[in-house]
Design brief:
Length: 375
Protein backbone atom coordinates (compact mmCIF):
# COMPACT_ATOMS: atom_id res chain seq x y z
CA UNK A 1 0.00 0.00 0.00
CA UNK A 2 1.31 3.44 -0.99
CA UNK A 3 2.68 5.65 1.74
CA UNK A 4 0.62 8.68 2.67
CA UNK A 5 1.38 11.81 4.62
CA UNK A 6 -0.83 12.55 7.62
CA UNK A 7 -0.86 15.65 9.79
CA UNK A 8 -2.42 15.66 13.26
CA UNK A 9 -3.35 19.12 14.55
CA UNK A 10 -4.01 18.94 18.29
CA UNK A 11 -4.37 21.47 21.07
CA UNK A 12 -4.70 19.75 24.48
CA UNK A 13 -3.25 16.91 26.53
CA UNK A 14 -6.55 15.02 26.16
CA UNK A 15 -6.23 15.26 22.38
CA UNK A 16 -2.73 13.78 22.60
CA UNK A 17 -4.15 10.77 24.46
CA UNK A 18 -7.09 10.29 22.10
CA UNK A 19 -5.09 10.60 18.89
CA UNK A 20 -2.19 8.44 20.09
CA UNK A 21 -3.69 5.04 19.04
CA UNK A 22 -4.32 6.29 15.48
CA UNK A 23 -0.91 7.96 15.34
CA UNK A 24 0.84 4.75 16.38
CA UNK A 25 -0.98 2.56 13.85
CA UNK A 26 -0.37 4.94 10.96
CA UNK A 27 3.35 5.06 11.79
CA UNK A 28 3.56 1.29 12.19
CA UNK A 29 2.17 0.88 8.68
CA UNK A 30 4.93 3.00 7.17
CA UNK A 31 3.16 6.29 6.64
CA UNK A 32 4.71 9.73 7.07
CA UNK A 33 3.04 11.10 10.19
CA UNK A 34 3.46 14.66 11.46
CA UNK A 35 2.08 16.33 14.58
CA UNK A 36 1.35 20.00 15.12
CA UNK A 37 0.72 20.84 18.78
CA UNK A 38 -0.55 24.20 19.98
CA UNK A 39 -0.15 25.34 23.58
CA UNK A 40 3.05 23.29 23.86
CA UNK A 41 4.26 25.42 26.77
CA UNK A 42 1.67 23.70 28.99
CA UNK A 43 3.58 21.23 31.24
CA UNK A 44 0.72 18.68 31.06
CA UNK A 45 0.84 18.75 27.25
CA UNK A 46 4.63 18.27 27.23
CA UNK A 47 4.45 15.41 29.72
CA UNK A 48 1.73 13.60 27.77
CA UNK A 49 3.76 13.78 24.56
CA UNK A 50 6.77 12.43 26.44
CA UNK A 51 4.77 9.57 27.97
CA UNK A 52 3.57 8.34 24.58
CA UNK A 53 6.77 9.12 22.63
CA UNK A 54 4.72 11.41 20.39
CA UNK A 55 6.95 14.48 20.28
CA UNK A 56 5.44 17.07 17.90
CA UNK A 57 7.19 17.98 14.66
CA UNK A 58 5.68 21.46 14.82
CA UNK A 59 4.87 23.21 18.08
CA UNK A 60 3.30 26.53 19.03
CA UNK A 61 3.97 27.48 22.64
CA UNK A 62 1.27 30.14 22.89
CA UNK A 63 -2.08 29.00 24.32
CA UNK A 64 -4.91 29.10 21.79
CA UNK A 65 -8.10 31.10 22.45
CA UNK A 66 -11.48 29.38 22.41
CA UNK A 67 -12.11 30.34 18.79
CA UNK A 68 -9.55 30.59 15.95
CA UNK A 69 -7.68 33.88 15.58
CA UNK A 70 -5.51 35.33 12.81
CA UNK A 71 -2.22 34.25 14.42
CA UNK A 72 -3.33 30.63 14.69
CA UNK A 73 -4.64 30.57 11.12
CA UNK A 74 -1.34 31.98 9.82
CA UNK A 75 0.69 29.35 11.72
CA UNK A 76 -1.49 26.58 10.38
CA UNK A 77 -1.13 27.91 6.82
CA UNK A 78 2.64 27.81 7.24
CA UNK A 79 2.62 24.24 8.57
CA UNK A 80 0.32 22.91 5.84
CA UNK A 81 2.54 24.53 3.22
CA UNK A 82 5.60 22.81 4.69
CA UNK A 83 4.03 19.36 5.21
CA UNK A 84 1.49 19.13 2.33
CA UNK A 85 -0.48 16.28 3.96
CA UNK A 86 -2.73 13.87 2.08
CA UNK A 87 -5.05 13.91 5.11
CA UNK A 88 -5.37 16.27 8.06
CA UNK A 89 -6.65 14.71 11.30
CA UNK A 90 -8.33 16.61 14.13
CA UNK A 91 -10.07 15.48 17.31
CA UNK A 92 -13.18 16.77 19.13
CA UNK A 93 -13.76 20.54 19.05
CA UNK A 94 -10.82 22.61 20.26
CA UNK A 95 -10.00 25.92 18.58
CA UNK A 96 -6.96 24.20 17.07
CA UNK A 97 -9.16 21.52 15.52
CA UNK A 98 -11.63 24.06 14.11
CA UNK A 99 -8.95 26.32 12.67
CA UNK A 100 -6.96 23.43 11.16
CA UNK A 101 -10.07 22.01 9.49
CA UNK A 102 -10.89 25.43 8.05
CA UNK A 103 -7.40 25.96 6.60
CA UNK A 104 -7.21 22.41 5.22
CA UNK A 105 -10.62 22.75 3.58
CA UNK A 106 -9.54 25.97 1.88
CA UNK A 107 -6.59 24.05 0.40
CA UNK A 108 -8.66 21.02 -0.70
CA UNK A 109 -6.94 18.78 1.85
CA UNK A 110 -9.42 16.19 3.15
CA UNK A 111 -10.10 16.33 6.87
CA UNK A 112 -10.70 13.35 9.19
CA UNK A 113 -12.59 14.23 12.37
CA UNK A 114 -12.14 11.93 15.38
CA UNK A 115 -14.75 11.90 18.16
CA UNK A 116 -17.21 13.64 15.87
CA UNK A 117 -20.92 14.23 16.44
CA UNK A 118 -20.87 15.27 20.11
CA UNK A 119 -23.98 17.34 20.74
CA UNK A 120 -25.61 18.37 24.01
CA UNK A 121 -28.61 19.99 22.26
CA UNK A 122 -28.41 22.72 24.90
CA UNK A 123 -29.82 26.17 24.15
CA UNK A 124 -26.37 27.66 24.73
CA UNK A 125 -23.90 24.84 24.06
CA UNK A 126 -20.24 25.08 25.13
CA UNK A 127 -17.73 26.58 22.71
CA UNK A 128 -16.16 23.25 21.77
CA UNK A 129 -19.56 22.06 20.52
CA UNK A 130 -19.80 25.04 18.18
CA UNK A 131 -16.33 24.16 16.90
CA UNK A 132 -17.58 20.59 16.42
CA UNK A 133 -20.46 21.92 14.32
CA UNK A 134 -18.01 23.91 12.21
CA UNK A 135 -15.79 20.88 11.63
CA UNK A 136 -18.85 18.80 10.66
CA UNK A 137 -19.37 21.16 7.70
CA UNK A 138 -15.71 20.86 6.65
CA UNK A 139 -14.64 17.25 7.26
CA UNK A 140 -14.58 14.45 4.69
CA UNK A 141 -14.58 11.60 7.24
CA UNK A 142 -16.56 11.72 10.49
CA UNK A 143 -15.53 9.07 13.04
CA UNK A 144 -17.92 8.80 15.99
CA UNK A 145 -17.54 6.98 19.29
CA UNK A 146 -21.22 6.05 19.65
CA UNK A 147 -24.35 5.40 17.63
CA UNK A 148 -25.97 8.53 19.10
CA UNK A 149 -23.10 10.71 17.88
CA UNK A 150 -23.51 9.26 14.37
CA UNK A 151 -27.26 9.90 14.51
CA UNK A 152 -26.56 13.51 15.47
CA UNK A 153 -24.52 13.94 12.30
CA UNK A 154 -27.09 12.25 10.08
CA UNK A 155 -29.75 14.61 11.45
CA UNK A 156 -27.48 17.47 10.31
CA UNK A 157 -27.48 16.03 6.76
CA UNK A 158 -23.98 14.55 6.89
CA UNK A 159 -23.81 11.81 4.25
CA UNK A 160 -24.16 8.27 5.69
CA UNK A 161 -21.23 7.23 3.48
CA UNK A 162 -18.93 9.61 5.37
CA UNK A 163 -20.06 9.00 8.97
CA UNK A 164 -18.59 5.94 10.71
CA UNK A 165 -19.34 4.62 14.18
CA UNK A 166 -15.97 3.19 15.23
CA UNK A 167 -15.89 3.49 19.03
CA UNK A 168 -13.81 5.80 21.18
CA UNK A 169 -10.06 6.02 20.68
CA UNK A 170 -9.88 6.90 24.39
CA UNK A 171 -10.87 3.30 25.15
CA UNK A 172 -8.04 2.15 22.85
CA UNK A 173 -5.61 4.45 24.67
CA UNK A 174 -6.69 3.21 28.10
CA UNK A 175 -6.26 -0.45 27.11
CA UNK A 176 -2.85 0.20 25.50
CA UNK A 177 -1.70 2.14 28.57
CA UNK A 178 -2.76 -0.63 30.95
CA UNK A 179 -0.76 -3.14 28.90
CA UNK A 180 2.40 -1.05 28.45
CA UNK A 181 2.72 1.56 31.23
CA UNK A 182 2.51 1.00 34.98
CA UNK A 183 2.21 4.01 37.24
CA UNK A 184 2.95 1.95 40.34
CA UNK A 185 6.53 1.40 39.13
CA UNK A 186 8.85 3.99 40.75
CA UNK A 187 11.09 6.26 38.74
CA UNK A 188 9.03 6.83 35.60
CA UNK A 189 7.77 10.23 34.46
CA UNK A 190 4.19 9.01 34.73
CA UNK A 191 4.51 7.31 38.12
CA UNK A 192 2.47 8.02 41.23
CA UNK A 193 4.14 10.26 43.78
CA UNK A 194 5.86 8.31 46.58
CA UNK A 195 3.12 9.42 49.01
CA UNK A 196 0.27 8.26 46.78
CA UNK A 197 2.08 5.02 45.93
CA UNK A 198 2.48 4.27 49.64
CA UNK A 199 -1.19 5.09 50.26
CA UNK A 200 -2.28 2.76 47.46
CA UNK A 201 0.01 0.05 48.83
CA UNK A 202 -2.37 -0.05 51.79
CA UNK A 203 -5.24 -0.82 49.40
CA UNK A 204 -4.02 -4.29 48.48
CA UNK A 205 -6.63 -5.86 50.75
CA UNK A 206 -9.07 -2.94 50.88
CA UNK A 207 -11.67 -1.44 48.61
CA UNK A 208 -10.69 1.78 46.87
CA UNK A 209 -13.08 4.58 45.96
CA UNK A 210 -11.72 7.12 43.45
CA UNK A 211 -13.21 10.57 42.90
CA UNK A 212 -11.97 12.70 39.99
CA UNK A 213 -13.32 16.24 39.73
CA UNK A 214 -12.16 18.26 36.72
CA UNK A 215 -14.53 21.22 36.76
CA UNK A 216 -12.40 24.21 37.87
CA UNK A 217 -15.58 26.14 38.76
CA UNK A 218 -16.84 23.49 41.17
CA UNK A 219 -18.60 25.25 44.05
CA UNK A 220 -17.45 24.77 47.67
CA UNK A 221 -20.92 23.42 48.51
CA UNK A 222 -20.55 20.67 45.90
CA UNK A 223 -17.06 19.83 47.17
CA UNK A 224 -18.45 19.63 50.67
CA UNK A 225 -21.13 17.15 49.54
CA UNK A 226 -18.49 14.96 47.91
CA UNK A 227 -16.22 15.09 50.98
CA UNK A 228 -19.19 14.15 53.18
CA UNK A 229 -19.96 11.16 50.92
CA UNK A 230 -16.35 9.91 51.03
CA UNK A 231 -16.16 10.35 54.79
CA UNK A 232 -19.51 8.59 55.22
CA UNK A 233 -18.42 5.41 53.44
CA UNK A 234 -14.96 5.11 54.98
CA UNK A 235 -16.51 5.68 58.40
CA UNK A 236 -19.14 3.00 57.81
CA UNK A 237 -16.99 0.49 55.94
CA UNK A 238 -13.63 -0.13 57.56
CA UNK A 239 -12.25 -1.84 54.45
CA UNK A 240 -12.56 1.31 52.29
CA UNK A 241 -10.01 3.97 51.36
CA UNK A 242 -10.55 6.95 49.04
CA UNK A 243 -8.44 8.98 46.59
CA UNK A 244 -9.74 12.34 45.42
CA UNK A 245 -8.08 13.93 42.35
CA UNK A 246 -8.75 17.65 41.78
CA UNK A 247 -7.39 20.52 39.64
CA UNK A 248 -4.79 22.78 41.29
CA UNK A 249 -7.20 25.70 41.66
CA UNK A 250 -9.63 23.47 43.59
CA UNK A 251 -7.07 22.10 46.02
CA UNK A 252 -7.70 24.69 48.75
CA UNK A 253 -11.47 24.14 48.67
CA UNK A 254 -10.99 20.37 48.65
CA UNK A 255 -8.66 20.58 51.65
CA UNK A 256 -11.21 22.68 53.49
CA UNK A 257 -13.96 20.21 52.59
CA UNK A 258 -12.14 17.17 53.99
CA UNK A 259 -10.70 18.98 57.02
CA UNK A 260 -13.73 17.97 59.06
CA UNK A 261 -13.70 14.30 58.04
CA UNK A 262 -13.57 11.95 61.02
CA UNK A 263 -10.97 9.66 59.42
CA UNK A 264 -8.91 12.06 57.34
CA UNK A 265 -6.02 9.61 57.06
CA UNK A 266 -8.07 7.27 54.88
CA UNK A 267 -8.82 9.95 52.27
CA UNK A 268 -5.88 10.98 50.08
CA UNK A 269 -6.24 14.28 48.22
CA UNK A 270 -4.23 14.52 45.03
CA UNK A 271 -3.51 17.01 42.27
CA UNK A 272 -3.82 16.13 38.56
CA UNK A 273 -2.48 12.72 37.59
CA UNK A 274 -0.88 11.50 34.37
CA UNK A 275 -3.02 9.37 32.07
CA UNK A 276 -1.23 6.14 33.10
CA UNK A 277 -1.90 7.00 36.75
CA UNK A 278 -5.60 7.60 36.04
CA UNK A 279 -5.78 4.28 34.21
CA UNK A 280 -4.18 2.47 37.13
CA UNK A 281 -6.56 4.11 39.59
CA UNK A 282 -9.47 3.00 37.40
CA UNK A 283 -8.26 -0.59 37.29
CA UNK A 284 -7.72 -0.75 41.07
CA UNK A 285 -10.89 0.90 42.33
CA UNK A 286 -14.32 -0.50 43.18
CA UNK A 287 -16.06 2.50 41.63
CA UNK A 288 -15.41 6.06 40.47
CA UNK A 289 -17.15 9.37 41.10
CA UNK A 290 -16.54 12.03 38.47
CA UNK A 291 -17.83 15.10 36.66
CA UNK A 292 -15.76 14.27 33.55
CA UNK A 293 -16.93 12.38 30.46
CA UNK A 294 -13.23 11.67 29.82
CA UNK A 295 -12.85 9.83 33.15
CA UNK A 296 -16.25 8.21 32.66
CA UNK A 297 -14.99 6.54 29.47
CA UNK A 298 -11.78 5.38 31.16
CA UNK A 299 -13.79 3.84 34.02
CA UNK A 300 -16.16 2.10 31.61
CA UNK A 301 -13.18 0.61 29.75
CA UNK A 302 -12.45 -1.44 32.86
CA UNK A 303 -16.14 -2.06 33.68
CA UNK A 304 -16.11 0.08 36.81
CA UNK A 305 -19.38 1.65 38.05
CA UNK A 306 -19.54 5.43 37.79
CA UNK A 307 -21.41 8.00 39.86
CA UNK A 308 -21.80 11.24 37.90
CA UNK A 309 -21.31 14.28 40.12
CA UNK A 310 -22.59 16.80 37.59
CA UNK A 311 -25.48 19.26 37.47
CA UNK A 312 -26.51 18.22 33.96
CA UNK A 313 -26.24 14.61 32.79
CA UNK A 314 -27.36 15.20 29.18
CA UNK A 315 -23.86 14.52 27.86
CA UNK A 316 -23.52 11.21 29.73
CA UNK A 317 -26.50 9.27 28.44
CA UNK A 318 -24.72 6.29 26.85
CA UNK A 319 -23.28 4.91 30.08
CA UNK A 320 -26.41 5.74 32.09
CA UNK A 321 -28.62 3.91 29.57
CA UNK A 322 -26.25 0.93 29.57
CA UNK A 323 -26.55 0.71 33.36
CA UNK A 324 -22.90 1.46 34.11
CA UNK A 325 -23.45 4.93 35.57
CA UNK A 326 -25.86 6.76 37.84
CA UNK A 327 -26.51 10.48 37.99
CA UNK A 328 -26.17 11.71 41.59
CA UNK A 329 -25.75 15.45 41.03
CA UNK A 330 -23.66 17.63 43.32
CA UNK A 331 -25.67 17.47 46.53
CA UNK A 332 -26.81 15.12 49.27
CA UNK A 333 -27.72 12.27 46.92
CA UNK A 334 -24.03 11.40 46.46
CA UNK A 335 -23.63 10.02 50.00
CA UNK A 336 -26.72 7.82 50.00
CA UNK A 337 -26.04 6.28 46.59
CA UNK A 338 -22.38 5.65 47.35
CA UNK A 339 -23.19 3.99 50.67
CA UNK A 340 -25.91 1.83 49.11
CA UNK A 341 -23.64 0.58 46.34
CA UNK A 342 -20.69 -0.25 48.60
CA UNK A 343 -23.08 -1.96 51.01
CA UNK A 344 -24.50 -4.29 48.37
CA UNK A 345 -22.27 -6.52 46.28
CA UNK A 346 -25.26 -7.34 44.06
CA UNK A 347 -26.00 -3.68 43.36
CA UNK A 348 -22.35 -2.99 42.59
CA UNK A 349 -22.07 -6.08 40.38
CA UNK A 350 -25.15 -5.04 38.42
CA UNK A 351 -23.29 -1.89 37.31
CA UNK A 352 -20.15 -3.76 36.24
CA UNK A 353 -20.81 -3.95 32.51
CA UNK A 354 -19.19 -6.64 30.42
CA UNK A 355 -18.69 -4.25 27.50
CA UNK A 356 -18.25 -0.49 27.37
CA UNK A 357 -20.79 1.48 25.32
CA UNK A 358 -17.86 3.59 24.16
CA UNK A 359 -15.98 0.87 22.30
CA UNK A 360 -14.04 -2.37 22.32
CA UNK A 361 -10.47 -1.10 21.90
CA UNK A 362 -10.39 -1.40 18.09
CA UNK A 363 -11.47 2.11 17.12
CA UNK A 364 -8.03 3.11 15.81
CA UNK A 365 -7.81 0.00 13.66
CA UNK A 366 -11.17 0.78 12.05
CA UNK A 367 -10.18 4.42 11.45
CA UNK A 368 -6.85 3.54 9.84
CA UNK A 369 -8.46 0.89 7.62
CA UNK A 370 -10.99 3.42 6.34
CA UNK A 371 -8.39 6.13 5.75
CA UNK A 372 -5.99 3.79 3.96
CA UNK A 373 -8.71 2.31 1.75
CA UNK A 374 -8.78 5.58 -0.19
CA UNK A 375 -6.40 5.54 -3.15
Amino acid sequence: MAQKTYLFCIGTAAEVVKTMPVYRLLKEEGNRVHVLQTGFADPEVRLTHQIFSMVPDHALDKPVPRFPDAALLASLEETLTAVVPDVLIVEDGSATAGAAALVAYSRNIPVAHLDAGLRSHAENPPYFEKNQELIARLAHWHFTATEQAKCNLLEEDISPTRAFEVGSTLVDAAIWTREHLHASTPGHIYSFSPELREFLFQCRSRRLVVAVTENPQLQPQAMGALAHALNNVIEKYGDCLAVWVTPPNCQANAEAAIAHCTDRERIRLSGPQSFPALVELATRCSLMLTDSDYIEQVASTFYKPVLLTVDDHSGHQELIKAGGARFVGTGSEIAGTLEALLGSSDALRAMQLQTSPYGDGNAARRIVDILEAVK
